[in-house]
Specification:
Radius of gyration: 23 Å
Number of strands: 16
Oligomer: single chain
Shape: globular
Strand content: 15-25%
Structural class: alpha/beta
Strand order of the largest sheet: 11-5-4-13-14-16-15
Mean pLDDT: 85
Number of domains: 2
Length: about 500
């Protein structure tokens, strides 16, 4: 498949604020497939005071389990050196900053294809990408190319003049830090080329990941699940999130309750690893409302609705490596102290044929943590969308406490009785190697109460007796009629091993 890019050197500079750019040239056909920056702050540093790096003596048990799969700087004598371990963790922190920025560039590519806040052009559909890739000229291909080129031009103008658009403001700053300017025709040519290349890069990466998953699927379902759970090991870490993984979590909680594994009122303290931000997810693609975080509130809503938690005893801690996410939650708490609700916009794309269960979850979402408020209308170019919105009660927002933490190398130091009854991490561990996932398991176990559970849609390497966690069961949930559109949630418990 191929996607058009603007030819180098063509003038697309705007003729004035808000005006359309001059037309781009016919695209160059290149191979593709269908479809940050970590801020530092004093407050974030203070929050890490209760955070501890996994001790070398514990890490050495993971070294032994994953011998042959270790980073080069942790082999040989380095496996026994405290200094080498500290250097490795420090280098890891630098790498995280780079991977977070790479993830922001994926979000920028999604914004290019699916955003509606900066353009009246239609979102790019899978069918349009197929038309763009067609070798033979046709009216439909010409229309798809014009739509794509218009999106590129409108986004470049939006980045130059973001005004009150928080996504464009952030991306504009990101690009300026990477050396882009918005002053001359040459500046806009360079920006347009980069936006097109960035989309191509993401789609090309997606093609490779899809190919790996399809090869695993040809073997069996277990191989496919394991392939999905490691596929982003070398990819940028994206903050994007969406609603339906929380539907799968609720289905898992229901089954755990039905089986008596979780009891009424049992869950008091919950950790959400990597709650992320709903910026412009590739599967949903909405950017017409303010950025929001969903999972901390969806988990509280499900636990309360199922009777697994009591409102006056529930506490939710978010653990995220991104200061962008952590500061967003801190700001929500600040507003809640002023008795201001946190509004969640809940658009549902109806042309994807969601299952009856998914629609029922969407309709019920938020009934225990807030009240229905007027939703921001979806723009016409967003597609077939149903909307609703929930104003989360300030009292619920104040149950959520953000912590800056890297789950691979860090843990919260918690006394017995204050550890977590439930830890949730969806689409998080997929970004790490087996060795790193093994370290994460060690930290998860250290933060679990006796009888506590981890719920995740990633297949952690749990087969070895050296693993810190073991599988108790699982729940499979479909989101739509499309093949593969759903999640399997694993229920994990501590595997007690001798010290």
């Amino acid at each position: 498949m191929s996607l058009p890019c603007r030819a180098a050197g063509e003038n697309i500079a705007p003729q004035g604020r808000g005006n359309l750019m001059r037309p781009m040239s016919k695209a160059t056909v290149v191979s593709a497939a269908l479809i940050g920056i970590l801020f530092c702050s004093t407050e974030a540093a203070q929050q890490k005071s209760g955070i501890k790096v996994v001790p070398l003596r514990e890490a050495q048990k993971v070294f032994a389990t994953y011998k042959g799969k270790l980073p080069e700087d942790l082999t040989g004598e380095a496996m026994r050196s405290e200094d080498a371990w500290r250097r490795h963790v420090a280098e890891r922190e630098k790498l995280l900053e780079e991977r977070l920025e790479e993830g922001e560039l994926d979000t920028l590519a999604n914004l290019t294809l699916f955003g509606t806040s900066f353009t009246d052009a239609s979102i790019i559909t899978a069918a349009e990408l197929q038309q763009l890739a067609a070798n033979a000229p046709s009216e439909s291909r010409q229309g798809a190319e014009q739509n794509y080129q218009k999106r590129l031009k409108d986004l470049a103008i939006g980045l130059a003049y973001p005004q009150g658009n928080e996504r464009l403001q952030y991306m504009s700053g990101l690009l300026q830090r990477r050396g882009f300017k918005f002053a001359t025709a040459s500046d806009y040519n360079r920006l347009g080329e980069f936006l097109a290349r960035n989309v191509l890069r993401m789609l090309s990466e997606n093609a490779r990941y899809r190919e790996a998953i399809e090869k695993a699927r040809a073997l069996d379902a277990k191989s496919e699940f394991e392939a999905r759970s490691h596929v982003f090991e070398h990819r940028g870490i994206s903050l994007d999130t969406s609603l339906f993984p929380n539907y799968a979590i609720e289905q898992a909680l229901k089954e755990l309750k039905d089986k008596g594994i979780l009891r009424a009122g049992q869950v008091r303290r919950v950790a959400v690893v990597g709650p992320g931000l709903d910026t412009v997810n590739k599967d949903v693609g909405f950017d017409y409302y303010p950025e929001q975080t969903i999972q901390p509130f969806s988990v509280a809503d499900s636990l309360l609705r199922l009777g697994l938690a009591r409102e006056n005893k529930l506490s939710v801690v978010t653990l995220d490596i991104s200061e962008k996410v952590n500061s967003h939650i801190r700001e929500a708490r600040r507003r809640a102290l002023a008795r201001r609700a946190y509004v969640l916009q809940l658009p549902l794309r109806m042309d994807g044929q969601p299952t009856d269960g998914a629609v029922a979850y969407w309709k019920a979402f938020g009934t225990r943590i807030g009240r229905t408020v007027p939703a921001i209308p979806a723009p016409k170019n967003a597609g077939n969308i149903e909307t609703r919105a929930i104003g989360v009660f300030p009292s619920t927002v104040l149950k959520v406490h953000p912590e800056h933490l890297d789950i691979v190398y860090e843990r919260m130091e918690l006394p017995e009785g204050e550890k977590f009854d439930l830890i949730i991490g969806t689409n998080i561990f997929v970004y790490y190697s087996e060795f790193e996932q093994g370290l994460a398991e060690t930290n998860l176990r250290a933060m679990l109460n006796e009888g506590g559970l981890v719920l995740t849609n990633d297949a952690l390497p749990l087969t070895s007796e050296g693993s810190a966690l073991k599988v108790l069961g699982s729940t499979a949930t479909a989101y739509s009629d499309a093949p593969g559109d759903g999640d399997t949630i694993l229920w994990l418990e501590s595997r007690r091993t001798p010290d």
